[in-house]
Amino acid sequence: MPRPLSESTVLVTGASAGIGLSICRRLAPSKCGFVLAARSQDKLQQVATDLRQSGCEVLVIPTDVSQPNSIRDLARDSRQLSGRIDVLINNAGIECFADFDSLTEDAIQQTIATNLTGSILLTRHILPGMRAQKSGHIINMASTAGKHGPAFGAVYGATKAGLIAFTQSLRGELRGSGIEATAICPGFATDGGIYDDIVRMTGRRTPRHMGGTSAAAVAAAVENVIRKPRPEVILNFPWLRPVFVLREAFPAIGERLILAATRRFLRQASRPNRLN
Which residues participate in catalysis according to the annotation? Predict the structure, then answer.
């Protein structure tokens, strides 16, 4: 049986801002314990102060999830809080929108390391403890970009598709073990997400027909799946799941619909990253 949230320890990567911060604030009233990971120690300490005022125990571990040694240290040190991790939220991520052939090798490798490899490696280090306690929940912050790769976001979409496939594989492997795995797939974030940079660059919000979600809605979905596990949650309005189903049945038609709604905006978002 999974532990109640009030008795659980939750490890959140990318906890210092955006969706990660919203998740922490959403879970704080449950009085769970937190392990907070992100690159900025100062920002993490600010989050920790707020959570402790809510009555939560908090451990701060500055971490760069693109670095394997940093991930190993996080996994080792995170057990200091309660000796166990009940919920792992792989949330850390960076955006990468540009013409694919303008990206440097370093940018490609950094995006993959941060968005995908880091989550896989951290899960690898945390999973044995979950097996020993016969319970746990791994939540991977994917994206609707992983359901259909966005134009001008080839590497970003590939990492998010990888997280979805990773989650599906874990679910098959861990069935019956008491350990759950869930992929959360937000659409364009209307607040507090990595798409804020895109909005600042273009001077425009995402088009209405493109849809979106909020950091608060993502945090609520995370709490819901901790309490009632699900394989996957798509968070977007207007709802995109029917479009994804249509694309699977009729790939050409589905692709045209998605590109009609997204390509112009994403092309504009990629311009600051293009080579002259």
Answer: 156
CB 181 within 8 A of CB 138: yes
Q: What is the pLDDT of residue 129?
A: 97
On the 0-12 / 13-18 / 19+ scale of CB atoms within 10 A, 109 is middle
Enumerate the β-bridge partners of residue 36: 12, 60
Question: Between vectors from CA 196 to CA 193 and to CA 201, what angle results, nearest 5°?
Answer: 155
- Residue 185 contacts residue 144 (beta carbons within 8 Å): yes
Mean pLDDT of all residues in 113-138: 98
Inter-residue contact 113 to 66 (CB < 8 Å)? yes
**Quick one: CA torsion of 227, 228, 229, 231, rounded to 10 degrees?**
-140
pLDDT digits (tens, 9 = 90+) for 203-227: 655 555 556 788 999 999 999 999 9
The total of other beta-carbon atoms located within 10 Å of residue 103's CB is 18
pLDDT of residue 98: 86
Strands (E), the chain: 9-13, 33-38, 58-62, 87-90, 136-141, 179-186, 232-235
**CB-based contacts of 242: which residues, under 8 Å, 6+ apart?**
none
CATH number of 102's domain: 3.40.50.720
pLDDT greater at residue 18 or residue 244? 18
pLDDT at 276 over 70: no
Residue 136's beta-bridge partner residues?
Answer: 179
Range of the domain at 138: 5-273
Instruction: Tell me the average pLDDT across 183-206.
Output: 68
